[in-house]
Structure formats: structure tokens, C-alpha cells
């Protein structure tokens, strides 16, 4: 979508083909990009796993190996339970978890120590739960929601967009989202934030662009200028609204500072869980 919009709006004068490199929670793509040092014609999109996956030992390359260019969007987590579950908000859930965290299971698509796990841990910790005892179930085969619906697990940790259709169908309810304020859009606006429930914490699934190692200032500026124009374009605004994404633009310098803080915070969480490798 980014490449199409850049081309359509005339923000670049050459085609920008997209190459998918799935695998290893992003590790395959990062290894591929490490080979592109010295070639500024290759950039990639990433999100919190570029910090989390290396910290938990699943990749030898991470955020410090690449050149931050610009961040564009923010997405947020939602914590959902079955519609007939006894919990009606996050405080109900966390009150039970404080008694015995291990009795309540949380499922996510990502591996232990990656995004679906850590976004729940961050909010639960702020609520006073002993996060070292939380039972997290990783289902990377696409069955996480099914496990929730059939009663195999208690809580589903996911992106907000992954919960909307099942909420509309009356099968699940969202106890809380990790945004600083309520999200906009049909159904989304009904999801309460953790903050409004007295839990003073957020988790943002930022998504931005990186380049290969050691890009120079001229190369960075080239992409910064075009990505800023993309961010401000009406066409990109329509795409954000269509997918329920929020604007979170940062230039290269801002992004670099933000990533340092993110790395420090996430390191502390993983260290507490004894997941640093």
C-alpha cells in the first residue's frame, strides 16, 4: 500500500517493487536486509518485534543494526474474552489474576516474548499482577481466536482489528485496549482503554520504515521527505481510516530516540520474565 501510494501520488520517480520475506517473526527479512548495506535502494517496514525478537534470542539482528527512517502509523492491542465470560472489564480480569495468575490463560499469535505476549504483560504489570506467573499460550498456526471461542483459553491478546468482526457477531467482548484514548470508528469507539479503567499504561504497535546499516544523511533525508509527504497525503489518510490505523509520524531523529526508549522498556519486561537470551 505504501509503495502504491508513493507511485500513485508521484512521490517517487521509479517503481518500488515489494518483496515479502516471511519467517522467524521478522528475522528472515532482517538477515536479508543486512546483506544490503551500502545499497540505499532497499528499505523495509517493521514494528516492535524488531526489538523483541532479538532480545529473546530468536534473531542475531535487531533495531540497532538498521537505519531508522520514519515511523508512520500506530496500532493498538485489544484484550478479549468470550461473550459469556464472567469478566466485564480489565479490572475484573486482573483482580482474579492477582489471586492466581496461572489459573487464567492468555493466547496470542506471537511466540513467547514477542508482541501479543508482551503487550498483555505490560498492561497486567501496571495493574499489579505478578506477570512472572501468567500462563501465555502461543498459537502461530492461526488458531488463537478458535481457542478462545471453544473455551480452551480465557483471554485473547491481539490487535484491535482482529477482534472487530467477532465482537459485532456477539461472540466475544473486548475488555480493554492499549491506546491512550478511545479509538475512532464503528465498534472501535466502544472499546474502553486501560487508562480509563485506572490502569496507567499503554502499548503501541508502531510501524515504520528502516533502511540498511550505515545510510548517510543525504540518503536518510531522501526517504524522510517522501515519507512525510506520504503521511500528509489525502490518499494515505484514506488508507489509515480504512484499516483503523492511527497517525504516529516521526522523522528519523525522533524515531531513533523513540526506539531507544522502547528498547529500554521492553528489555526490562523481558528480563523480569527471564526471556532475555
The structural class is alpha+beta
CATH architecture of the largest domain: 3-Layer(aba) Sandwich
**Total number of distinct structural domains:** 2
Radius of gyration: 19 Å
Q: Could you say what the CATH topology of the largest domain is called? A: D-Maltodextrin-Binding Protein, domain 2
Strand content: 15-25%
Flag low-confidence runs. none
CATH uppermost class of the largest domain: Alpha Beta
What would you give as the CATH superfamily of the largest domain? Bordetella uptake gene, domain 1
Mean pLDDT: 94
Separation of the first and last Cα atoms: 35 Å
Form type? globular
Number of strands: 8
Q: Major sheet, described briefly? A: 8 strands, mixed
Question: What portion of residues is helical?
Answer: 25-40%
State the oligomer.
single chain
Order of helices and strands: HHEHEHEHEHEHEEHHEH
Quickly count the helices.
10
Structural write-up:
This protein is an alpha+beta fold and 277 residues long. The protein has two domains: 2-73 and 209-272, 3-Layer(aba) Sandwich (D-Maltodextrin-Binding Protein, domain 2), CATH 3.40.190.150; 75-197, D-Maltodextrin-Binding Protein, domain 2. The protein is built from ten helices and eight strands. Strands 1, 2, 3, 4, 5, 6, 7 and 8 form an eight-stranded mixed beta sheet that branches. Helix 5 (115-126) links the parallel strand 3 (105-108) and strand 4. The mean pLDDT is 94.
Amino acid at each position: 500500500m505504501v509503495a502504491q501510494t508513493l507511485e500513485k501520488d508521484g512521490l517517487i520517480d521509479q517503481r518500488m517493487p515489494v518483496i515479502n520475506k516471511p519467517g522467524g517473526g521478522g528475522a528472515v527479512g532482517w538477515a536479508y536486509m543486512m546483506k544490503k548495506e551500502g545499497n540505499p535502494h532497499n528499505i523495509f517496514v517493521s514494528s516492535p518485534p524488531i526489538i523483541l525478537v532479538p532480545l529473546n534470542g530468536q534473531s542475531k539482528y535487531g533495531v540497532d543494526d538498521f537505519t531508522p527512517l520514519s515511523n508512520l502509523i500506530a496500532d493498538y492491542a485489544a484484550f478479549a474474552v468470550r461473550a459469556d465470560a464472567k469478566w466485564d472489564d480489565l479490572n475484573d480480569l486482573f483482580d482474579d489474576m492477582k489471586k492466581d495468575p496461572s489459573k487464567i490463560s492468555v493466547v496470542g499469535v506471537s511466540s513467547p516474548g514477542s508482541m501479543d505476549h508482551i503487550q498483555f504483560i505490560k498492561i497486567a504489570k501496571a495493574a499489579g499482577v505478578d506477570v512472572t506467573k501468567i500462563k501465555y499460550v502461543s498459537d502461530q498456526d492461526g488458531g488463537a481466536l478458535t481457542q478462545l471461542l471453544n473455551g480452551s483459553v480465557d483471554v485473547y491478546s491481539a490487535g484491535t482489528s482482529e477482534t472487530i468482526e467477532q465482537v459485532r457477531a456477539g461472540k466475544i467482548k473486548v475488555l480493554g485496549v492499549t491506546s491512550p484514548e478511545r479509538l475512532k470508528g464503528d465498534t472501535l469507539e466502544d472499546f474502553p482503554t486501560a487508562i480509563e479503567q485506572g490502569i496507567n499504561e499503554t502499548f503501541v504497535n508502531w510501524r515504520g520504515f528502516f533502511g540498511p546499516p550505515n545510510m548517510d544523511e543525504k540518503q536518510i533525508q531522501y526517504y524522510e521527505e517522501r515519507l512525510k509527504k506520504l503521511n500528509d497525503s489525502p490518499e494515505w489518510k484514506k488508507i489509515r481510516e480504512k484499516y483503523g490505523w492511527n497517525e504516529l509520524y516521526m522523522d528519523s531523529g525522533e524515531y531513533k530516540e523513540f526506539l531507544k526508549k522502547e528498547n529500554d522498556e521492553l528489555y526490562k519486561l523481558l528480563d523480569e520474565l527471564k526471556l532475555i537470551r
